[in-house]
Amino acid sequence: MIKKSTSQSAFFNVRVLIGLFTVLAGVVLALAGFGAFSAQAQQKARIITDSTNPLVPAGFDCSQIHALGIDRQDNLRAGAIRIACGEAQGGSASNFSELMQQALAATPLAYGGADINLITGADTGSHITQSETFSWRNPDNPNEIVVAYNDSRGVFASPINISGASVSTDGGTTFTRLTRATGQSPFSNTFGDPVALYNKPTGTWFAIFLDAACGGQGIGGYKSTNASDPNSWTHFCIHNGSGDDRESGWADNNPSSPFFGRMYVSWNNFSDGGSLRVRFSTDNGGTWAERQLAPASPFTRDVQITGDLATGTLYVAGMNEGVNGGLTNRFNKIYRSTDGGNTWTNTFNGSQFPGPGVTTCPNTYFACMFTDTGGYWRHMGWGEPAALNGVVHYVYASRNTSNGDAGNIFYIRSTDSGVTFSAPLQLNTDATTRPQWQPNLSVSSGGTLFAMWYDARGSANCQKGNTAVPCYQMWGRKSTDNGATWLPDMAFSDVMSPLPAQPDPGIIAEYAGDYDYASAVVADHITAWDDGRIPVSGQSQQNTFFDKEPAGAAGIPCGDLVSFQARCKHTPNGDKLQARVTLTDTSHSGEQVTITVDGNPNSVTINGNTATLQINNEPLGQHTVELTDPAGCFAPVITNCN
Ligand SMILES: [Ca+2]
Ligand SMILES: [Ca+2]
Ligand SMILES: [Ca+2]
């Protein structure tokens, strides 16, 4: 085991040597596994002898990129190897002749509250790329939230460190980016692909990344019982691997579950060509058992893993990306385990759908959402599953091949534990052909669902890095009945963001984060995203931002309500429809009720002891106004606008 260093002294040199040894050992093993010297190597031979990037092992043979599956991996190390071999370009700064830095217009809050910037501390120079998030909350202390993400701050540090996390101790009002005295995160010698889990039986946080000290490119990370202290995190391994990629994770924190306390990690193992695998621990992370869900061929991408908040049944969302990826058709796949990860069944294979995107990326295996710099914002349509009481939910993205719309967000729902799914419901209801992409989803134990995605309906075009061109905003959509019906889609982030640049030369140019993982273990849906509103050196660039959406009114009894009123108020500027719920006290402040007008539900947040809805310019005539969540407390109110 490698001990944790508390200073910048000569111990670093030892760690570099150990790291180099494990990386080389991993590559040699991987080469042996592939019969690397067979005739299949078509690429021109080039051995990396002059690596300046710690992600790229000296002695690496560039002709092996395809054989090792590096062109299908989405992690930052695979990208750096392709940069070093001349197959990809790193990021660079963009220059604009006119830096018309305009104030971005705020739009009314709809879902969520104030957006929180997770990147505290210095964010200057070129190693400033933060994106790809995983949000999780301590169920025993809801004030404690950890969001893990990729952070290029230490891409050229020794040891390398491109993993980060920000911690809140006040329920998500403020966050601090974990930073040790070294200027780096606690997650030394790791390569990103973030997962953050809380193990309830031991009160321990697990921050999980691709880890050099676990076999070269295996899965490991750091754990802590005091997440906000950057010096408290200690190293562990989950899987010693040489070609692990894109892991996901889930922890069963329901004391009523037969599998309470188990932790799960899914990933693709490219040391055998990309098989889909899961490891699980029944002893709070001490040891890990392994199962294969799908073989390397046909390739099934590990999208995300989740578990049923009530029953503990596990679901892995996978994707068949077509033989050559790019803009070809995709197939969603669901794998299920009803025995705590011991055995797995492929329960669902969806119909084909067109992958999102406008072009292939510079690495043509991947699709990109924008044409900037030869293809930007790699995205294959991956989303996130969620499950509660045998109902399984999944969101993903697909393009419309008939009208040129590069992406829309779709939702499918299973009421038989992942065997059959509903026809896709398009969650974004805009009439534009602008892109929506990279959605995430969470379900609360009370049965509310919240989906969130990147949405460019508010812009006519985007320009990578240009602060004067607002591009996208985070939008969301909520269900208060476990996915049976949905409230309107509305904005979630507070302002439109420019399309951020990716200026770090150590990270491939097309990278903008591959996923965001949301969760809802207690009263809120918590989620984070890649946001470009904060410029550095006059250029929009990637920061991770956070916001939360209250889980809803589940559990507000009629006895806590005093009255429900509705009226139409005539003004010279048009009629306003107003409705008000009054509660006995302020104990439900911050939760939400649903007020339905002529069949259209509106989610309204309780402020103090009242929840107030106002709809401007309500059409003349009779309207039916009803409190539908909680339901059955009051008769509907009929009001006339005239
Ligand atoms: Ca940044
Ligand atoms: Ca669209
Ligand atoms: Ca917001």
Amino- and carboxy-terminal Cα gap? 77 Å
Quaternary structure state of the chains depicted:
single chain
Number of helices: 2
- Quote the CATH topology of the largest domain: Neuraminidase
Gross morphology: globular
Largest sheet properties: 5 strands, mixed
Ligand inventory: calcium ion
β-strand number:
42
What percent of residues adopt helix (DSSP H or I)? under 10%
Q: What share of the residues does DSSP label as strand, in percent? A: 35-45%
CATH level 1 class label of the largest domain: Mainly Beta
Tell me the domain tally. 3
Indicate the CATH architecture of the largest domain: 6 Propeller
Structural class: mainly beta
Overall average pLDDT: 89
Radius of gyration: 24 Å
Strand order of the largest sheet: 5-4-3-2-31
Poorly predicted sequence stretches spanning 5 or more consecutive residues: 1-43, 97-109
Question: Which labels suit this protein?
Answer:
5-stranded antiparallel β-sheet; 5% helix; 642 residues; Neuraminidase; binds calcium ion; 5-stranded mixed β-sheet; 40% strand; Immunoglobulin-like; 2 helices; disordered N terminus; 42 strands
